[in-house]
Design brief:
- 55% of the residues lie in helices and 13% in strands.
- With 198 residues, the protein is α+β, with helices and mostly antiparallel strands.
- Helix 1 packs antiparallel against helix 4 and helix 2 runs antiparallel to helix 3.
- It is elongated.
Length: 198
């Protein structure tokens, strides 16, 4: 069955948006937080951070913006560009193997690109946790910035896992959407009805 450009781009756009949403969730929950003190005490000149001994009260967690909108929007742009480029490069557009090759190549490229965008967002805009010192806590100056804490998660190297997860999710979603597309086409075909010659 021949795969049209419109179908390819449509499948990839849904795939890119889904991978983008998952990337935003990963940015918010799976990456290290930047701890921001709501009421920092005065520090001596030359110090770059604070060390706290005592309780801290979480005032606010990471915000969903900009990841929740930026990454799905990136998925749409990437999917459209990748779909068009793959369509132009791959001339084999008929037959099951050519169709799956086109889909797999486009889905892999989409997953990688959205994962790279997620990594960039993770590096440029680390999700912040706003905390406030409680009564009885003590702060001292340090030359080490307080950039990690509270919910650090060493699940795996993000630089490896984000692209791998992006590729796997993109391939699964693309295959599922194309299967639904094939099923819809088969059920919408008009059935042959014998003519009544009487």
């Amino acid at each position: 069955m021949r795969l049209t450009l419109r179908t390819l781009v449509g499948i990839l756009v849904v795939t890119g948006v889904t991978v983008g949403v998952l990337g935003a969730v990963g940015w918010r929950y799976a990456t290290r937080r930047l701890v921001v003190i709501a009421d920092p005490p005065p520090t001596p000149p030359g110090s770059t951070g604070l060390v706290f001994t005592g309780p801290l009260n979480v005032v606010a967690g990471p915000q969903w913006w900009p990841g929740l909108l930026l990454l799905p929007a990136t998925g749409i742009v990437v999917a459209t560009a990748v779909g068009t480029l793959v369509w132009a490069l791959l001339t084999l557009r008929s037959g099951p193997w050519a169709t799956w090759l086109t889909l797999a190549s486009a889905a892999t490229a989409t997953g990688i690109c959205v994962a790279i965008a997620t990594l960039w967002l993770t590096d440029e805009r680390r999700p912040a946790v706003l905390v406030r010192t409680e009564e009885g806590s003590d702060a001292g100056a340090t030359t080490t910035p307080l950039t990690e804490g509270l919910w650090d998660r060493e699940w795996a190297p993000i630089g490896l896992w984000f692209p791998v997860v992006g590729i796997l999710v993109a391939l699964v979603i693309t295959a599922a959407l194309y299967g639904i597309h094939l099923l819809a086409q088969r059920t919408s075909r008009p059935r042959f009805e014998p003519r009544d010659n009487t």
